[in-house]
Every structure is written in C-alpha cells, then in structure tokens.
C-alpha cells in the first residue's frame, strides 16, 4: 500500500483530463502525473524533470505511437532503477500491433479500455482497488 | 837669533787672523795699492802687506819681491807685531837681532826695515805693513805716520773684507736655509704673483721654479678657499701679519694639499715674505683625531658609557659628555660636579661607594662597583662603575679615573631572567609531576626523561639517556613515523596518540604533544615530548568498540530472531483462524455453544497475533535508527484521529499551539495512536471527549491526551505501563496490554517521560514529554 | 471481457493456505482451473515437464521449503516459455527485500496474506476483477 505515484503517458490532453477527473471522483489516493509522449515521460523518470519519488506505476498505450511505446518499455526494463516499475498497458485501439511485444516485457496487465467517462470510472475503480491491495517496496 | 817671539794673546790672535780668512787669498788690488803707496812714500824698493801666521809670514801684497811667504822665525815683522808702533831697523847688519838673518845676509839683503802693525780694533796684531830697503836708511816722522795710516787702512780693508765675507757667508747661510728648508719659503706680492720660490715649492707642489715665479699664486688656490685668501691678502696689504692662515693649493698632480702660511708684508713694496708649511698630514691627523673623538663620544653614547676623572686632593670631578648624558645633568665646573654626583646616588648605595673608595685608596687596586642613581622623578638607573687609581711620586693615590656604564636595561633584563627562570623551573616541576616528559636531541637521542616516563616505559633513566627514542617508538608503522618526523623536523608541533613499546614488551598508549625547539635559524635543535598516559582510556575505547560491535550484532540477531519468530508464530495462527472459520461455515447446523466456542477460539487467535505483533514492535523500539523529519503535529494528530476515532459519538479538541517539530514521525504516530485509540477503546460515555493539548517547556515538548472515560485509579498509575498488563480482564476488554508499555518505552528511549493524571471515574489524562 | 478461463498455478506449501485460496476462489466464483505445487521445485517440474497445462497466472508464495518463491521466480524468468507468465505474489513476508526482489523480477502484484479470511476474500475479489480487466 502506501502512496505511489502513477505516470500516465498519453498525447491526448482530453484523455489525461478524463483520467484526472476519474481519479478524483474515485478518490484515488495515488498521485497522477502525466507525460505527453515517451520522451517527456523518460525525462520524468530519469532526466531533467525526474520525479521524486520515482513513479511505481506507469499507464501507457503502446499502440498509439508505433513502436515508441515498446522502445520506451524496453528502455525501462533495461534500466537498473526503473525496471521494477509496474506497467499497465491501457489501450482503446483495436489494433493490437504491439500487444505481443508488450506481453513479452512482463507488464502487469494489458487492459483494453474505453475512455468514455462512465466506463473509465469503472476501469479506474477496479485498478484503484487492485492498487490498494498490493504492496509496494519502499524503494525510492 | 832664532827665537820665536809670540805676543801674549797669540792663540786668540791666530784665531782672529783665521777669522779674517785672508791667508792664502788671492792678491787684491786694494792691498797692492797700499803696498805701492807705502813703497812710494817711504822710498823703498820693497813694500809688503804681511800677515804673521803661526809659523810663517805671508805676504798679501808685495812690491819689489817675488816670494809669497817666508818662515816666521826669519821675519822682521814678528817683532813689529809685538808692539803697537812702527818698528824700525835702520841697519839690519848692525842689529843683533837681524845680523845673522839669512834675509839680511842673503837675498833679498835687507838693510832697512820699517813696519807698522796691522792692529785690529780688538788689539790683535795680525801682521804688518812694512817697507824694506837694501840700504840702511831711516824714515822721517811723516813717513812713519804715513806708514801707520796706511797700516790702519790695510786693517780697515781687512775688516771690510771680513765683513763682506761674513756677509757673503751669512747670505749663503740664509740662502741654504731657504733652499734646504722643508717649508715653502717664498716672496710674493700683494699683486698676486710669486716672485721667488724656494725648492720646497717644487718638492711639495711639483711645479718647477720657472712655472711658479712670476705666476699668480691665486691660480693654485682651491676655489673654495679663494675668498678667504683674497681677504687675507687684503689684510696683508694693510700691513697686518698673517699667522697660520690655511688654504688649499693644487699640486701639479691635481691633488690638493693644505698649506699653513705665516706671512710678513712689506707695505712699501707690497712684497710678502711667506713661509708655508704642508699641514695636509697634520690636518688629516687632526681630522682623524676629531673623528676619533667623535667616534669615542658616539661609542660612549651608544654603549651608554661615560668616562670620569676624579682628583682625590681637590675633589675635582671631570666627566665626559657620555657621563653627563647618563646622569642627565648639564655640564658643571669640576668643583661642583662631585656634589651633584653624590646627590644623585641612591642613599643605600652611597655607603657602599664610600667603602669602595676607601679600599681603593688603601690598596691601590682597580675597582668595579654597581650602584643605583635616582632621578628627581623617581626613575632609577643601574650604573656599573670601573676605576683605576693613579699614584703620585710618593706612591699615594691622588687620582682616580674610570668609566661608567648604564646597565639599567641589562640589570632589569637580568632580574627578569631570574624571575622567568624560576617560573620555568616551577612549570617544569609541575610538568614533571603530572606528565610524561622526554627531551631528545636533533638525532632523536634522549637527553632527558622524567620519572613518569621511566615508570610507564619500565626503563631506568640510565637505560634511556643517550639512547635513540626509537627504543620506545621504533615499531611504529612507517607512514605514521614518517608523518610525525616530517611535522617536527619542519619546526611544527605534532599532537596525537601513539602506542609505545615498554621494556617488558607490553604496549602503552600516550596522548603526546611533541614540540620542536628552534634555534636562531629556525631549525630544530631539540624536541620535547609531553604526554599523558591514556592506555586505560584506549583499552576502554577498544572494549567499547568491541562491545558496540557485539551489541550491533546481537541487535541484528535479535531483529532477525524477532521477525522469524513472529512470522513463524503467525503462520499457524492464521491457519487456526481460517480453519475454525471454515468449520463454522461448513456446519450451518452447529449448536450455538459450539459456534460460540469457535468464536472464542478465533478471538484468542486474534489476540495471539496482536500479542506477537506487540512483542515484535516492543522489541524493535530503540534499536532501529529512524530518520528525523519535519512533522506538522496538528496535521498528524488530525490524520490519526481521522483513522482511529469513529465519526460518531466522539468530540475531539486539539490545542491551537501544536508546533511543527523535527522528530521521528513513526514514533510519535505510535504514541499518539496508542493513547488516542485507548481513549476511544475505554470510552464509557455517550459522547466520548478527547482533548489534545501542547505546552512548550524550556527543553521539552509537553503533550497531553485527556479523555472523559472511566479514569484509572491512582494505585494503578504505574502498573498500567507494564508489559502485558491490562486494566481489565482480556475477556472484558480485548487488549494486548502492550500498548502503553510500548508508548512508555518509546518516550523514555528518546529521553522524555510520561505520567498519568487521573482518578477513578474522573477521566484520564496522559501527559508526556518529548525532548526538543 | 475474457471468456476463456486461463489456467492458474498456485505455488504454496501450507496446506491451510491452499485451502484458503480454494475456498476464496470458490466464494468469489472464480472457475479457472487451479493447479497446486507444494514448492518451487515441484512447480518447475510440473511446468517444464508439461505435467500441467501452461498457466497464464501464477500465485506464488515466497517462504517455501526446498526452493523459495524468489528463486523459483528467477528461474522462471530465465525460461523462454515460462518467462511471460503473470505472477502474483501472495505471502506473509512483509520484508522489503522480498518485495524489491519480486518487483525486480517483474511480478504483477505483491499481496500480503491477511490474517482474517474475510479480508482475504475481498482481496481475491479484487484480483478477480482485475484479471477480468486484463487480456492475458
């Protein structure tokens, strides 16, 4: 349990807004950060905008940005300090180009979602409950 | 007759004759003329100007014969000079004196002789003016007179001649005098020219006679001395003498010499008769003397020395300038000085001085004495006086002479040194007593060790002195020894701890300070080591270290143990819990009582888990380092209250003044959680009130949690904090009994304290302090 | 929603805890085929020798005899066939070191076994919801 930070990587401002709204409605106690793309996300993990503490959860749609997402995940898995981050792939794309690649990277879950506010809430709620029952290491 | 007749004053007469320097002189016209005149007047063929020498008669002038001289015994004139008058021999053949005379019997066959003596003013007859004939005759009176007159004339001539010769002689003497004089003798003129210069000029100045005579003497004078020289010449022109006038003249070589002039002027002609002396060397000598004197004065001044002279008879005292300066007196006449001198002397020392004076007079030995002088402003100077006695012909001491030296500074310095020496001795004693002291020389050989050193190193003094200090320190690791050496060899103090080797092979620890003593060149010439024995400390430290290490290990072990124990103890608990639950589930028809038993069972299991957790928690307190952080206490309290206190049925008040402090969050959370949850748990009123307050004490934070619950009787105030102690049976109120003991342990671990203010049924206040 | 029921392998040595899981699953209507291995060695054997069909989910205890959960996980992650299986750790160990090791080996979640069965039921329910969300 404890307070983890969650990093949402998505280039759609609307989606990010929806998530924030959902988080607050569900009263998710974990802090939500957002990055518009993989580069920005990387800088928030290991670069100039490095978050402290490092997020324990990443939400990303790997199907939107060709293989940038997969490359990003690869990089994370290869980074000593970042490789243990829980990655949840959330996608609303029918196209499952990168699903296999993602599954090969030991993601915590590959979750097809819809981002409409109602359904989003139910998704977030389940996720939130899940996050509440699992333990996080106290690593920074 | 061959008798040599001599006048009475013959010896003097001969001398006078010699003085005339006439004998053997050349013929002179004047004398010849007189001889001729005599011959003419007397009508004789022969006339002679004749001078009688000791053994001969010599003819200055002769008329009528050729010989220049004959022997005295044959002469007629020898008789003439015996008397004052004309001596006449009219017929020589008839005169017994002359009849046998060869000059009569032979050539020139003298028959007649008449001679008038040549008589000096002093009455000496030098010779004669005589006329001689070969026939006998006689002179008449006029002829005799004429002869006398002519003789006088000859004398006059002789006198005049002598005078002339004398004059020439004296002139020559003067000439020699001038020529040979080392002084520069010259005749100059007020017109500024040299007329005549003597050879000394050339010798001294280097110019030739020709270069000087006729040239202006002004040309040779040093430019700076010209003005004065002109003045002097002017004075001379007025007829004033110049005495010891000095000016500088340029030699031909270009050097300047100093000449001291004595000049007499002749105002008529303007001639200046000058004698100058080259006083360059004297001047130099004078200057040296002056310089020497000045130097002496200065030396005396610098060395603060003065010299003195005391006449015991007259009590006249003479001092040098230096002496006056030391005594700070103005110059006084020697008869008054003695009194002044005595008045300055310190009264106590006057007696000593007089005694010494007495001794000196008695023994005639040199003396040395130290005394003080006191000035009107009460300042004191210390004087060292040395004196020598001087005796008169009778051997009595009549005079004392000597010097004084102002040794005030030295004396004061000496006193200071004595004082400081004593201080140093005292310090050294103290040091010796308290510390371990050793001194080693440049090479590291021990030159001194104190008793403490010996007792701790177990060596005797003899075994150490002269030995290398490496006996004790040689085992040091190279780097350590090098570092020490480098520090002290460079003149720096080294401080540190060292482990030394004692004689018996054991080690002892010292906390040492090694100080190098530096010479004038700032190089160390010896090292002093002062240290204290810290062996016990070191041992204690080592023990402490190992004890701590042990403790750390034990702690870890305990932690592990506690964890494993709790974990392994819990596992079966869980199983028991679950199984009992399932049993109840799977048997819906279970009788009430059985089901109730199972509840009890599960209750106990839960209790067990709580106990295990409590024990684990309790054991952890104080063994884990928790980081301090900034805690907003008000916020924390609110969070705890939110999570523990039910929303309904409770009223919480929190003081306004809860500060933000720096502390271990988790500990405070535990304490507050425990106390508040107790308040909630034991609340027996419809509305439970919990009041949290803060008070700032000088070194502590004070908190109080007050409830309106059943309170705790005074006799249990201490008991409740004991481990596993519950206030009620566990079946009445489920409680591990550990909570408060954990709270107490946490608080006391941090240095705070907790106590209860409560009475039965009057609510309960838990007040605890946390150090700032 | 995932219709197909994936296989779940439970690696757990405590008999009662196995019962816990089975009961919780049944109470939550989790119908997925559940296989049980008593420890890491057994689990590997079952997997490598195809004794059981390949599971998509492994529920893993840590404190087990012979080979503990972390060791098993390590071997699994190095196995080409096994490395992508989602692992959910369920353990009594609250040790940070175990959590770190587990996440470093990319478990999908680390769950502490609660003492009460009720709480366990809730956790399992949440898990079920989560699994239903994911595509495996």
Structure commentary:
Chain B: Its EC number is 2.7.13.3. Chain B: Keywords: Kinase, Phosphoprotein, Transferase. Chain B: It comes from Flavobacterium fryxellicola. Chain B: Residues 170-240, 423-467 form the PAS domain. The complex is a heterotrimer of chains A (140), B (772) and C (136). Chain A is built from 5 helices and 5 strands, in the order βαβαβαβαβα. With 140 residues, chain A is an alpha/beta fold. Chain A has one domain (5-133): 3-Layer(aba) Sandwich (Rossmann fold), CATH 3.40.50. In chain A, α3 links the parallel β3 (57-60) and β4. The longest helix of chain A is centred in the C-terminal third of the chain and has 17 residues, at 117-133. Chain A starts with a strand and ends in a 7-residue tail after the last helix. With 772 residues, chain B is an alpha+beta fold. In chain C, α1 links the parallel β1 and β2.
Looking at this protein, list some descriptive labels:
heterotrimer; A: 140 residues; alpha/beta; Rossmann fold; 5-stranded parallel sheet; globular; B: 772 residues; alpha+beta; Beta-Lactamase; 43% helix; rod-shaped
Quick description:
The complex is a heterotrimer of chains A (140), B (772) and C (136). Chain A is an alpha/beta fold. Chain A contains five helices and five strands, in the order βαβαβαβαβα.
- Strand fraction of chain B equals 25-35%
CATH class of chain C: Alpha Beta
* Rough outline of chain B: rod-shaped
- Compute the number of helices of chain B: 22
Domains counted in the coordinates of chain B: how many?
Answer: 6
- The CATH architecture term of chain C is 3-Layer(aba) Sandwich
Strand order of the largest sheet of chain B: 3-2-1-6-5-4
Q: Can you tell me the residue ranges of chain C where pLDDT is under 50 for at least 5 consecutive residues?
A: none
InterPro entries (chain C): CheY-like_superfamily, Sig_transdc_resp-reg_receiver, TCS_response_regulator
Modified residues (4-aspartylphosphate) (chain C): 61
Domain Response regulatory (chain C): 7-128
GO biological process, one term (chain C): phosphorelay signal transduction system
């Amino acid at each position: 349990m404890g307070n983890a930070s969650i990093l949402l990587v998505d280039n759609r401002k609307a989606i990010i807004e929806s998530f924030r709204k959902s988080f607050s409605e569900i009263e998710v106690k974990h802090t939500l950060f957002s990055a518009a793309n993989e580069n920005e996300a990387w800088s928030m993990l290991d670069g100039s905008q490095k978050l402290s503490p490092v997020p324990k959860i990443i939400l990303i749609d790997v199907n939107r940005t060709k293989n940038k997402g997969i490359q990003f995940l690869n990089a994370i898995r290869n980074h000593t300090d970042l490789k243990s981050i829980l990655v949840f792939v959330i996608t609303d794309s029918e196209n499952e180009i990168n699903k296999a690649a993602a599954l090969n990277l030991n993601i915590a879950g590959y979750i097809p979602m819809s981002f409409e506010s109602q359904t989003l809430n139910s998704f977030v709620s389940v996720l939130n409950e899940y996050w509440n029952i699992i333990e996080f290491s106290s690593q920074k | 007759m061959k008798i040599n007749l001599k006048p009475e004053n013959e010896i003097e007469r001969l001398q006078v004759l010699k003085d005339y320097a006439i004998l053997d002189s050349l013929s002179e016209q004047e004398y010849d003329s007189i001889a001729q005149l005599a011959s003419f007047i007397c009508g004789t063929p022969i006339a002679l100007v004749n001078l009688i020498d000791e053994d001969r008669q010599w003819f200055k002038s002769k008329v009528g014969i050729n010989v220049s001289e004959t022997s005295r015994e044959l002469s007629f004139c020898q008789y003439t000079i015996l008397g004052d008058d004309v001596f006449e021999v009219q017929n020589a053949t008839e005169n017994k004196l002359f009849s046998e005379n060869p000059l009569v019997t032979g050539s020139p066959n003298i028959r007649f002789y008449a001679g008038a003596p040549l008589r000096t003013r002093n009455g000496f007859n030098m010779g004669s003016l005589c006329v001689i004939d070969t026939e006998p005759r006689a002179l008449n009176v006029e002829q005799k007179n004429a002869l006398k007159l002519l003789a006088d004339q000859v004398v006059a001539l002789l006198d005049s001649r002598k005078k002339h010769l004398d004059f020439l002689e004296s002139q020559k003497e003067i000439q020699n005098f001038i020529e040979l004089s080392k002084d520069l003798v010259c005749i100059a003129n007020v017109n500024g020219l040299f007329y005549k210069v003597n050879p000394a000029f050339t010798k001294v100045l280097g110019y030739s006679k020709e270069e000087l005579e006729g040239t202006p003497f002004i040309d040779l004078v040093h430019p700076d001395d010209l003005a004065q020289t002109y003045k002097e010449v002017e004075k001379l022109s007025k007829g004033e003498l110049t005495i010891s006038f000095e000016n500088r003249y340029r030699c031909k070589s270009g050097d300047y010499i100093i000449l001291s002039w004595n000049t007499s002027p002749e105002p008529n002609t303007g001639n200046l008769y000058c004698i100058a002396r080259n006083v360059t060397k004297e001047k130099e000598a004078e200057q040296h003397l002056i310089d020497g004197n000045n130097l002496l004065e200065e030396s005396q001044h610098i060395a603060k020395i003065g010299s003195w002279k005391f006449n015991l008879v007259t009590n006249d005292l003479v001092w040098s300038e230096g002496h006056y300066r030391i005594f700070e007196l103005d110059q006084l006449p020697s008869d008054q000085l003695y009194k002044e001198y005595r008045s300055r002397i310190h009264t106590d020392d006057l007696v000593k001085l007089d005694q010494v004076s007495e001794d000196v007079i008695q023994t005639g030995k040199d003396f040395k004495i130290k005394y003080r002088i006191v000035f009107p402003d009460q300042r004191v100077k210390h004087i060292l006086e040395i004196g020598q006695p001087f005796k008169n012909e009778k051997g009595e001491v009549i005079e004392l002479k000597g010097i004084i030296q102002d040794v005030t500074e030295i004396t004061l310095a000496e006193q200071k040194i004595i004082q400081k020496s004593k201080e140093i001795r005292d310090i050294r004693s103290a040091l010796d007593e308290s510390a371990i002291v050793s001194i080693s020389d440049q090479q590291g050989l021990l030159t001194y060790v104190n008793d403490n050193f010996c007792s701790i190193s177990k060596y005797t003094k003899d075994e150490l002195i002269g030995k290398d200090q490496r006996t004790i320190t040689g085992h040091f690791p190279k780097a350590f020894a090098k570092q020490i050496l480098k520090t002290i060899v460079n003149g720096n103090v080294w401080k540190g701890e060292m482990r030394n080797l004692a004689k018996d092979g054991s080690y002892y620890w010292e906390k040492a300070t090694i100080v190098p003593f530096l010479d004038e060149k700032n190089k160390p010439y010896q090292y002093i080591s002062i240290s204290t024995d810290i062996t016990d400390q070191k041992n204690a430290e080592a023990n402490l270290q190992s004890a701590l290490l042990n403790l750390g290990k034990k702690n870890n072990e305990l932690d592990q143990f506690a964890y494993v124990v709790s974990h392994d103890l819990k596992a079966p608990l869980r199983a028991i819990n679950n199984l009992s639950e399932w049993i109840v589930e799977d048997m819906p028809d279970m009788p009430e009582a059985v089901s109730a038993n199972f509840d009890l069972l599960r209750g106990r299991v839960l209790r067990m888990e709580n106990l295990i957790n409590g024990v684990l928690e309790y054991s952890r307190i104080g063994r884990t380092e928790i980081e301090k952080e900034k805690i907003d206490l008000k916020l924390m309290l609110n969070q705890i209250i939110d999570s523990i206190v039910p929303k309904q049925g409770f009223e919480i008040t929190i003081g306004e003044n809860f500060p933000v402090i720096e502390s271990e969050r988790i500990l405070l959370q535990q304490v507050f959680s425990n106390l508040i949850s107790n308040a909630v748990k034991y609340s027996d009123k419809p509305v439970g009130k919990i009041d949290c307050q803060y008070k700032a004490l000088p070194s502590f934070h004070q908190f109080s949690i007050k409830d309106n619950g059943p309170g705790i009787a005074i006799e249990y105030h201490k008991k409740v904090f004991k481990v596993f102690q519950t206030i009620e049976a566990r079946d009445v109120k489920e409680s591990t009994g550990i909570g408060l003991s954990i709270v107490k342990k946490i608080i006391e671990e941090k240095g705070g304290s907790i106590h209860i203010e409560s009475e039965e049924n009057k609510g309960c206040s838990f007040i605890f302090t946390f150090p700032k | 929603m995932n219709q197909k029921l994936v296989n779940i392998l439970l690696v757990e040595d405590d008999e009662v805890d196995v019962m816990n899981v089975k009961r919780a699953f049944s109470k939550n209507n989790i119908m997925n085929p559940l296989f049980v291995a008593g420890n890491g060695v057994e689990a590997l054997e079952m997997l490598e020798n195809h004794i059981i069909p390949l599971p998509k989910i492994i529920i893993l205890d840590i404190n087990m005899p012979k080979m503990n959960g972390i060791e098993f996980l390590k071997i699994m992650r190095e196995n080409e066939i096994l490395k992508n299986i989602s692992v959910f750790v369920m353990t009594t160990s609250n040790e940070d070191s175990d959590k770190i090791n587990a996440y470093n080996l990319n478990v999908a979640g680390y769950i502490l076994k609660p003492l009460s069965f009720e709480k366990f039921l809730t956790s399992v329910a949440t898990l079920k919801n989560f699994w239903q969300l994911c595509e495996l």
